Amino acid sequence: MTPFKLYILGCGSALPTPRHYASSQIVELRGKQFMVDCGEGTQIQLRRSRIGFNKIRAVFISHLHGDHCFGLIGMISTFGLQGRTAPLHVYSPKELEEMLMSQLKFFCTHLSFDVVFHAVDTSGQSVVYEDNSLTVETIPLEHRVPCCGYLFREKPTLPHIRRDMIDYLGIPVSQINNIKLGADWVCEDGTVVSNSRLVSPPDSVRSYAYCSDTRYMPTLYERLKNVDLLYHESTYGDDNMQMAETYYHSTARQAACVARDAGVKRLLLGHYSSRYDNEEVLLKQAQEVFPDTYLANEKMVIEV
C-alpha cells in the first residue's frame, strides 16, 4: 500500500502560544505533497519536519483569517530564493486573490515560478483538484467569514497480480497490465483462466477530511460519511460553549458528535484555544462520545 500521510505543522488557534503554531498541515499521497492552510511559522515547521519545500504542489486555504494564511507570502518568497521552477497552485476563497497578487508584485518581483490562483466556492461541495492519484473536494463550513474544509480522497488502484499464478502459467510480462485491467488468460490448449484467479483485490480507497474553522453543524456528517481520518476543530471545551457559539467555533464534544454520526474511523482534534494549558480535558470530553479520538500536535505524522 502506497503511503498516505498527514503531517501536523501547526494546530493552535489565532493567539500564538509557546506550545502551538498556527494552522498548517501537509497531506502526502503517492509521493505528492499538498499543504492545507499556511499560518505564521509554517516555514519553520517545514524545516523541523524535514519536508522538502519544492515537493509541495498546491496550497489549500480554508478561509481568510490570519492564523490560516499569514504564512503564505513568506513561504512563496522562500520558494523563490530556493530557485523553485514548478508552478505553485493556490486554492482559496476568491477574496485572497487581489491581496496575494499585490503582495507578489511588491515582495516577489523576480520569482522563477508561477503562482496560479484558483478561487473556490465555499458554499458548495465540489471537486477543485484532481490528478491520477486523488481528488480534493471542498466541504462547506459555517464561520464568521466564507470558509470551507477539504476532503482528500484517493482514487481506486488496480488489483494486485498473483505472482504465483503468473509464474505457474508462464504469462509474459507484456500481459501483466492487461490482466490488471480485467483480462482473462487463454492457455495454449484453449483453457481460459478467469481474471479472478490471476489477481487479488486492490488496496482499499482511503480518505482524509479537514474541517477548520466552523461552528457545530448537525448535518455536516452527511458530507463526511466513512472517512478514514477526520481533523475537526475543537477550539473549546464544554466550559466555553457560549464562546463557541459567539465566535462560530466548535467544542471537542461537538467535533466528536460529527465523527460519530459520520461513521469515520478516527478523529483528530485541533485548533485549540490558547486558554487551555493542557488539551487532555478536550480529549476526555470528545472520547466520551467517540472513543477513537486523538489530539493533534506539532511534528505528528499520521498514516491515513
TrEMBL record:
Q: Which gene encodes it?
A: rnz
Outline the subunit composition: Homodimer.
Cite the binding residues for Zn(2+) 2.
67-68, 213, 271
Q: What does this protein do?
A: Zinc phosphodiesterase, which displays some tRNA 3'-processing endonuclease activity. Probably involved in tRNA maturation, by removing a 3'-trailer from precursor tRNA.
From the Swiss-Prot or TrEMBL record, give the protein name.
Answer: Ribonuclease Z
Q: Start and end of every Metallo-beta-lactamase domain?
A: 204-272
EC class, as a word, reads hydrolase
* Pfam families, A to Z: Anti-Pycsar_Apyc1 (PF23023), Lactamase_B_2 (PF12706)
A single GO molecular-function term is: zinc ion binding
Please give the InterPro entries that the UniProt record associates with this protein.
Metallo-B-lactamas, RibonucZ/Hydroxyglut_hydro, RNase_Z/BN
Q: Keywords assigned by UniProt? A: Endonuclease, Hydrolase, Metal-binding, Nuclease, tRNA processing, Zinc
* Cofactor entry: Zn(2+)
Per the record, the similarity remark reads: Belongs to the RNase Z family.
Q: What is its EC number?
A: 3.1.26.11
Could you tell me which PANTHER family the record lists for this protein? ZINC PHOSPHODIESTERASE ELAC PROTEIN 1
Catalytic site: 67 (proton acceptor)
Cofactor notes: Binds 2 Zn(2+) ions.
